[in-house]
Amino acid sequence: MASKFQNRLVGTIILVSIGVIVLPDVLDGKKTHYQEEIASIPIKPELDSDVESFEVLAPEDDSASLPPSPVEVVEESVEEVEPSTVTVAVTEVPERNQYQESAWIIQLMALKNAENAENVVKDLQKRGYQAHTKLENGFTRVIIGPDVSKNKLERQITELQKITGSKGRLLKFKPLNP
């Protein structure tokens, strides 16, 4: 037969195991289940009736604030219909930039990485060159100039090739607003 101690030990183990299994469920209180909330993104957004509408106004005539274009007055003929009437023909003369046909630049290289191009420009500026960058078609071009002396820039091409390892091209300078 089992002793009294063994019976008490088995009884205590059973009570403790029931307490461990049942008591957490009893003392837990209200059970909440966590579920992820999923919001669907509509394919086509629904339009509200409160859509903003803008009134398109007629353009204002702002030509008075512009400087007059350069014109050349040519006297064609003088007819004496009345003593104070003179017929005058007006022809426009395009304005020319004084450097448009005589300035030159060196296009040294075109790099995809703008940061590398800026580093090359900083290095060239430290060496005394008039270096700039120009963003064009996804590339950053390194440009030297403009300068009116073509011979000076031709000499600089060989110097720049020794410094950067890139042979530049001599091009005519085309200003943005001729």
TrEMBL record:
Q: Which top-rank group of organisms is this from?
A: Bacteria
InterPro entries, A to Z: Cell_div_SPOR-domain, SPOR-like_dom, SPOR-like_sf
User: Might you name a Gene Ontology BP term for this protein?
Assistant: cytokinetic process
Stretches assigned to the SPOR domain: 98-173
PROSITE patterns given in the database record: SPOR
Q: Which SUPFAM superfamilies match?
A: Sporulation related repeat
GO CC terms: cell division site; cell septum
- In the record, what terms sit under GO molecular function? peptidoglycan binding
Return the protein name: SPOR domain-containing protein
What is the source species?
Answer: Vibrio marinisediminis
